[in-house]
Amino acid sequence: MSNVKIVGIERIQKKLKKNVRLDDVKRVVKSNGAEMKQKAKGNAENFKGHYEGKRFVPPTGTLKRSIELAITDKGMTAEVEPHTLYGGYVELGTRKMQAQPYLKPAFDEQKVQFRKDMDKLTR
């Protein structure tokens, strides 16, 4: 979906090599990924539904149920994403439907906690 760049990663990497075991980093990645998944699902509870022509279609919960967490790169990456074809349309909106963001707000909130957790590992 989007790329994230963390500024100052070199300094963190040097500190991590000195002070932290890789298992601790993997634990932080996994726990923050799980928290982000829950936040995204929580955001998905606020969907308003949409119109098909003049007919209002209430949300079914399918998108919320499709949000999953995958741990990749030997535990160094957490991927939270929906497994529906229309997840991006809901997140970003269309010309006929207003955006109803659920992933970006969850990410923006979780990245603050992730940085705090990683900082704790480097002390």
TrEMBL record:
InterPro entries: HK97-gp10_tail (IPR010064)
Domain of life (superkingdom): Bacteria
NCBIfam families per the UniProt record, alphabetical: phge_HK97_gp10
Identification of the protein by name: HK97 gp10 family phage protein
Lineage: Bacteria, Bacillati, Bacillota, Clostridia, Lachnospirales
